[in-house]
Amino acid sequence: MEKRELVIIGAGPAGMAAAIYGRRAGLDVLLLERGATGGQINTTEEIENWPGVQCATGPELGNMFREHALKFKTEIRPAEVKKVQLRDGAKIVVTDKGEIEADAIVVATGAYFRRLGCPGEAEHIGQGVSYCAVCDGAFFEDEEVAVVGGGNTAVEEGDYLTKFASKVYIVHRRDEFRADRAAIERALSNPKIVPVWNSVVERIEGDGAVEKVVLKNVKTNEVSDLKVAGVFMFVGQAPYDECVKGLVNAAKEGWILTNDNMETSVEGIFAAGDVRSKHLRQVVTAASDGAIAAMGASSYINEQLHLRSVLLEPESVTAFFYSSIDANQAHLSNEAEKLAKSQGKKLPIIDGYKNSRMAEKLGVSLPAFVQLHSGAVTKVTPVASEADVAKALA
Ligand SMILES: Cc1cc2nc3c(=O)[nH]c(=O)nc-3n(C[C@H](O)[C@H](O)[C@H](O)COP(=O)(O)OP(=O)(O)OC[C@H]3O[C@@H](n4cnc5c(N)ncnc54)[C@H](O)[C@@H]3O)c2cc1C
């Protein structure tokens, strides 16, 4: 089977940044993409919040990312990842073009906005129809816009849009919002916000750019026109999480949970960008996540190489395994290290919390001295006190 150091799934801003950082850290990087490189930004006409580039089309920016990743000799391969699996501790990326074993993986598969599905929506994306207030709000200075939805995102983003728009109609199918009370109060006390209750969008019309939405009142069936220059759809966003569903821990609706280092619940698997459970889904935050994930992957791979060389390759070795998040175990590890040094003994100290897969693979409960012969465990001596440590080292 093909074996690579770092496999990145998804060539959007997060995956591209991970590739650049991974290659610059000297890793062998394979970037897998099932569609066009660049990710979601390919669908937008104007990006003006990526620092250093005052304005570019999405495809232009995506192309710059691609060129940058290629400059550092990233291998970009068209392939769809069907599943990521763990087999005997090995991480296997199953694609439509074969299987790849990876030392570390960055999942950067992104997310998508749910469409409303009404006539005129698809034709006007980027021409007045938007799914992101932070991305496109500033293009509607002193114009009237409509927001579709009634949950937290619709109400909060509607409020945000009043920084630019002269009036924001929030079109909702019910007669009250489903958002938090504080968000509702803030929105309803904003003079620029006009709720349009019990209404749904029948269609969006305009010659090129959006000119109006046609609304239907669901109580009276009355149809009316609302003249607006923009329509912001907030009917939901969802992650592309299928390939790691059930493998890594995720929040409601599948958003992948990570810590600040982009580590998922599975050692050696990182997540970056829009697919993560996070507050702000933008190019700049995706790229930042990708950089952090790649550096985390690089440390992880080096650590695994180090572990292999100190534990599995020597003919005979005794190591001390402990958990760095347990104060008593951390204390015992210090004692063990000091005592071994005073006796002139070589004693690798292994953080079994950070390297839980290695501890699991060796069948070690923490804290313990572990004797290995050619990579196989020959003796495990559990310890609970300084006296146990001294006895084991005697
Ligand atoms: C219309 C629009 C306008 C926007 N405007 C702005 C803006 O002005 N400024 C801004 O900062 N942000 C903007 N955004 C948001 C921005 O595009 C995203 O935050 C950013 O692209 C997220 O990057 P990502 O790499 O996490 O994911 P994505 O860009 O979604 O990239 C993920 C990639 O993974 C690939 N992929 C998914 N699953 C698989 C699989 N199983 N196998 C292989 N490949 C897979 C996808 O094909 C995709 O290319 C906009 C988004 C949209 C839709």
Task: Summarize the structure in short.
Helix content is 28%, strand content 28%.
Q: Can you describe this structure?
A:
With 394 residues, the chain is α/β, with parallel strands linked by helices. The protein contains 9 helices and 21 strands. Strand 5 and strand 6 form a beta hairpin. It is elongated and about 90 Å long. The protein binds flavin-adenine dinucleotide. Flavin-adenine dinucleotide binds next to helix 1, strand 2, strand 7 and helix 6.
Cα-atom radius of gyration:
27 Å
Total beta strands:
21
Number of helices, counting only DSSP H or I runs of 4 residues or more? 9
Query: Structural class of the helix and strand makeup?
Result: alpha/beta
| Gross morphology | elongated
Terminal CA distance reads 46 Å
Residue share in helix: 25-40%
Please mark out the parts with pLDDT under 50 across 5 or more consecutive residues, or reply none.
none
**SSE succession:** EHEHEEEEEEHEHEHEEEEEEEHEHEHEEH
Strand content: 25-35%
Ions, cofactors and other bound molecules: flavin-adenine dinucleotide
User: Averaging pLDDT over every residue, what do you get?
Assistant: 94
The largest sheet is: 7 strands, mixed
Reconstruct the topology from this structure:
Layout: E1 2-9, H1 13-24, E2 29-33, H2 58-71, E3 75-78, E4 81-87, E5 90-95, E6 98-107, E7 111-113, E8 129-130, H3 133-136, E9 144-148, H4 152-161, E10 167-171, H5 181-188, E11 193-196, E12 199-205, E13 212-217, E14 223-227, E15 230-233, E16 237-239, E17 269-271, H6 283-312, E18 316-322, H7 327-342, E19 349-351, H8 356-362, E20 368-373, E21 376-382, H9 386-393
Helix pairs in contact: 1-2, 1-6, 4-5, 7-9
The chain binds flavin-adenine dinucleotide (FAD).
Flavin-adenine dinucleotide (FAD) binds next to α1, β2, β7 and α6.
